Amino acid sequence: MAEKIKSYRKKQGLTLKALAEKVGCTDAYISQIETGKAVPSISVLQKIAQSLDVQVRDLLSDEQSNDKIFLTKEERTQIIYPGSHVYAELLVAKISNKAMEPLYKVVPVGCDSKGEHRHTGEEFGYILKGKLELRVGDQVKVLGPGDSFYFSSTQPHSYKNVGDVDVETIWVVSPPVL
Questions:
Q1: What is the mean pLDDT of the chain?
Q2: Percent of the chain surpassing pLDDT 70
Q3: Distance CA 57, CA 63 (A)
Q4: How far is CA 163 from CA 9, 50, 142, 148, in A?
């Protein structure tokens, strides 16, 4: 991701300062992102993509890993959700050519989705650890380890950690929203 951002920025003839102004952050922060010393939140990544006139998935993709079948834990791309301590790791090397977006998602104690969400597609999840309250439309259910869910993402949905340990899930969104 870091090299992609730098490459797109240079192709467009933008300086660090010019990109930072478009994104609404400092040029030092953009530099840290481009050198891999900082991982941007989803909202910052979306602003960077918009400023560079590309899709977020283009920044996350790695041309060299086009046919990558295996991905070690250390190779995962980490995603930090804005305004929250919720984070996820992509479970594939490249999503730009995928029909789904598989994530290892962690919802820390007391954290939630920061409101309802709605978009095209479907979502599937499997709870590995913790207690997750999931709201889909007018239905609410507290899910624990071994429980799963599947719903149309066009329905308003939200989630909240209602337990005393971090919730760990495998969460799949199709088509990818990143």
A1: 89
A2: 96
A3: 12
A4: 43, 37, 10, 17
- Please state, in angstroms and rounded to a whole number, the distance separating the CA atoms of residues 90 and 60: 9
Per-range mean pLDDT, top range of 10-14, 61-65, 66-70, 77-81? 10-14
pLDDT for position 165: 98
Non-local (6+) Cβ contacts of 93 within 8 A are 62, 65, 68, 71, 75
- Which of 151, 111, 119 lies closest to 135, judged by CA? 151
| CA-only gyration radius of the chain, Å | 17
- Which letter does DSSP use for residue 155 in this model? S
Phi, psi (rounded to 5 degrees) for 64: -70, -20
Which residues touch 67 (CB under 8 Å, ≥6 apart)?
none
Q: What one-character DSSP code corresponds to residue 71? A: -
pLDDT in the model for residue 91 = 93
